[in-house]
Amino acid sequence: MTPSDATALPPVAITIDVEDWFHVCGIGVPQPVARNMWRTKANIIKILALLDSYQCKATFFMLGSVAESEPDIAPMIAAKGHEIASHGYSHTLLTDMDQNAFRDELMRTEQILTKQIGVRPIGFRAPQWSVPYNSTWMDEILIECGYHYDSSRNPLPFVGDSSLPLHPYTITTSRGTLLELPPMVTPTIFGNLPTGGGWGFRFFPIKLIEATVRKYHRAKAPAVLYIHPRELDPDGPRLKLPPLKSFVSYGSRKDAVPQLSMLLEQFRCSTLSEIAASWPRTY
Ligand SMILES: [Zn+2]
Question: Does residue 105 sit within a domain?
Answer without folding.
Answer: yes
